[in-house]
Amino acid sequence: MVKLWEQEAAAWRLELDLDGEALALRMGDEARQMRVSLGSAGALTPELVRRAAAKAVQSMCRLGAESAAADVSLVAEKLGEAGVAALAQGAELARYQPKMWKEKKERPFTLYLTGTEAVDGARVLAESAAVTAGVCFARDLVNLPANKLTPEMMAQQVTQAAQEAGMETQVLCGEETRALGMEAYHAVGDSAGHPPRLIVLRYRGGAAGQAPLALVGKAVCFDTGGYSLKTAQGMRTMKCDMAGGAAVAGAMLALAKNHVPVNVTAVIPAVENRISPDSFLPGDVIGSMAGKSIEIGSTDAEGRLILADAITYAITKEGAAKVVDIATLTGAIARMLGGVAAGVMANDDGFYDQLQAAAGRSGEKFWRMPNYPEYKKLIESPLADLYNSSNDGCGAIAAGMFLSAFAGDTPWLHLDIAGTAWNSAHGLEYQGKGATGMGVTTLYELCRTCGAAERSAQ
Question: Which residues, at least 6 apart from 438, have a Cβ–Cβ distance to it below 8 Å?
């Protein structure tokens, strides 16, 4: 927990050292001290502050600390609200623990801040806490094993949290989505004993009648690969294949809790990709809500199928003015970018620029993939309008090109977070093993940016 200083006693003093100048709250001699260097003032960024705060909190907790105090006046002076928010977020995320089914006692820890006079400290911490809670909500979902998070269970958890935050929710089942022609979505979801759910969340914080931005998140609650079966090793972390949907849900909660003036709709297709006598097979030709036919090259390229119908739903049924899809979509992007950056494809340069600005505030990294017309050959089929896997390598680009066919002329961003949604080993200081919550903060910042742009255009 991060709080403003209210004269409580703190057992530790955290000193943030900048250009050799210690930022510290003066306390009695009995207080233990930890000093963390932030380097030079010229190179100071919110992300550096976020990582430093996380490292300091983790170190103090390992040494048994239950509270600490820090003077953040120079961070506030140099970086403003962004610096204080980053410090609070790093400290909070460093304390995240996934749900476990064994006895484990966690000591509480509170970091008290002073020196926030240059910013509205209470407001900054409240906003940061809502965003951090959204990240942790996403992590909680992704860390759940498949038997604890079926599509129906995910729909229940997400809609309950959304309703408590004041959002309108809808869950479409069975005949409702079949009647819409969502054959690609059902080709994947009907292969499981747990039926699929299309989760729709509507947050209306912007102007009445303003077309919403749509966030579309892949939520394959478990992915066996279908008849294009994954290896045993490859399946070990496949409970995280719904991380895109979790990120969308976490971002929506943060937007609602902070009353951000923007209209946003979330569309989360929740399914399992399993094997049954009626499962779709390589070589099948299926339809889609957009009316496009699809030849199946691999049943393990299932995420793009459910996203295709979800994108179409967002545009045609929810009236989305812009669409962002986010998914743990391809192993190719993980092999290319590792756990450092996510891949992006965009059909609108201005929208992409807004994403980069949002990422600059969130600290998350994205790398743009090309979408030259020549790449359309990767998804050509002799039998159907599209092929769902690549004809010739470039797997991450092929997946993006497939989805672009369903976005059409609507401004669209595709975020492939396959390499960054899960940490097998410890990643950044504020990320533990398991789910990272990748995308929540960037989506939140992107929606806030889009809302501001819409207001200035009016």
Answer: 243, 247, 342, 364, 417, 420, 421
> What is the β-pairing status of strands 434-435 and 422-423?
antiparallel
Is the whole model's pTM more than 0.85, yes or no? yes
Cα 95 from Cα 110, distance rounded (Å): 10
Three-state SS for 344? strand
CB 343 within 8 A of CB 416: yes
Question: Residue 399 has what pLDDT?
Answer: 98
- Please state, in angstroms and as integers, the Cα–Cα distance from residue 446 to each residue in 33, 79, 214, 352, 408, following that order: 38, 20, 11, 10, 21
Pick from 403, 422, 411: nearest CA to 322: 411
Q: How many CB atoms lie within 10 A of CB 179?
A: 9
Q: What angle do CA 433, 434, 437 make, to 5 degrees?
A: 110
Residues 139-180 pLDDT 10s: 999 999 999 999 999 999 999 999 999 999 999 999 999 999
Task: For the chain, count helices (H), then strands (E).
Answer: 14, 20
Residue 25 has pLDDT above 60, yes or no: no
Q: Where are the alpha helices (DSSP H) in 63-189?
A: 73-79, 81-94, 121-143, 151-164, 174-179, 183-189
**Phi, psi of 321, deg, nearest 5:** -85, -30
- How far apart, in whole angstroms, are the C-alpha atoms of residue 96 and residue 113? 20
Q: To 10 degrees, the CA torsion angle through 97, 100, 102, 106?
A: 20
Residue 180 makes CB contacts below 8 A (sequence gap 6+) with 172, 289, 313, 317
Q: Closest Cα partner for 214 from 181, 252, 167?
A: 252
- Cα–Cα dist 329/456, whole Å: 35
Active site residues: 230, 304
- The DSSP call for residue 68 is E
Max alpha carbon distance in the chain (Å)? 78
| Each residue's pLDDT tens digit, 98-129 | 887 776 677 788 998 988 888 999 999 999 99
pLDDT recorded at residue 198: 98
Residue 444 is encoded by which pair of tokens? 């939140």
Alpha-carbon distance of 334 to 417, in angstroms, equals 8
Residues 396-455 pLDDT 10s: 999 999 999 999 999 999 999 999 999 877 678 898 889 999 999 999 999 999 988 888
Q: What mean pLDDT is predicted for residues 225-240?
A: 94
Q: Token digits for 372?
A: 């030259």
Mean predicted confidence (pLDDT) in 50-75: 88
